[in-house]
Specification:
Elements lengths: L7 E6 L1 H4 L10 H12 L5 E6 L20 H8 L7 E5 L2 H5 L4 H19 L2 E5 L24 H17 L3 E3 L1 H5 L15 H16 L7 H10 L13 H10 L10
Parallel strand pairs: 1-2, 1-3, 3-4, 4-5
Helix pairs in contact: 2-8, 3-5, 5-6
């Protein structure tokens, strides 16, 4: 994909996109993504976190009445397009799924948002799939939160697949949160709904991987450094090794360096 290097990132979504339940701010997944991009690209990156806790995608969502307002459909112009980003990460759908929004209506609203952002900004859009959750406990206990527990594992998989198909249809990048998390409950906060620090970091790394493997520009700094420092097998590696390994490698080195120009 011919995008990047990225200078302005907008993050849209719910409480997890906001960074909730990460004890250390640098572990919030949006910050993990941003820090990795800054590390590997040559341009500075500004982040606009517009995740809204308890947010939903549109007024059609059954949870809209109890949600934080405005919905994403009502705010994406101000909170995204008006900021003129060149990279947008959308992690919206968890609360819609949890409150029982019909999948077709969710897809229609998501497609409207994605297509309008692309048309209005030309930004690369990344869609994050549905997070792994634990049903029946904490914030997913139907007796405690009846509005937000109208889902099942099958519905979660359906949402995840739908988000992937929207990404493919609109030329966006899909980051599969369920695959990244691998069904591991220990990546969740004790409320069973939000990510803990480890979960945030893994999601951030997964989003970065999805971007970096599709956007060649992320490698620009890497190749510049290779050229400037003449990086090769002759001058790299060996961290935390010992003299024995160094001597063994030195003895074998000539068999691997005949092709290297001196």
């Amino acid at each position: 994909m011919e995008h990047g290097p990225f200078r302005k990132l907008v993050v849209l979504g719910d409480s997890i996109a906001y960074g909730m339940c990460a004890a250390e701010p640098e572990n919030e997944w949006n910050q993990v993504v941003a820090d990795l991009l800054r590390k590997f690209q040559d341009e500075p990156l500004e982040v606009f976190n517009r995740g809204l806790p308890a947010g939903v995608i549109s007024p059609r969502c059954p949870g809209y009445g109890e949600s934080a307002k405005p919905s994403l459909l009502e705010r994406y112009q101000q909170h995204c397009i008006d900021l003129a980003p060149d990279l947008v990460i959308i992690a919206e759908g968890l609360n819609d799924m949890r409150s029982g929004m019909p999948l077709q209506e969710y897809v229609e609203d998501l497609e409207t948002i994605v297509s309008d952002i692309q048309a209005g900004t030309g930004a690369l859009v990344v869609l994050l799939g549905a997070y792994h959750q634990t049903y029946g406990v904490g914030a997913n206990d139907p007796e405690v939160y009846p509005t937000w527990t109208r889902w099942s594992y099958d519905i979660s998989k359906a949402y995840n697949l739908a988000i992937k198909l929207v990404a493919e249809k609109h030329g966006a990048i899909f980051a599969d949160a369920q695959q990244i998390m691998g069904g591991a409950d220990w990546l969740l906060h004790i409320d069973a709904a939000h990510l803990n620090d480890l979960g945030h970091v893994l999601i951030g790394q997964g989003i970065f991987q999805a971007i970096a493997t599709r956007c060649e520009s992320v490698a620009d700094k890497t190749f510049r450094v290779i050229d400037e420092k003449d990086v090769s097998i002759l001058n790299t590696g060996g961290t935390d090794t010992d003299d024995d390994i160094q001597q063994l490698w030195a003895a074998a080195l000539s068999r691997f360096t005949d092709h290297i120009d001196e």
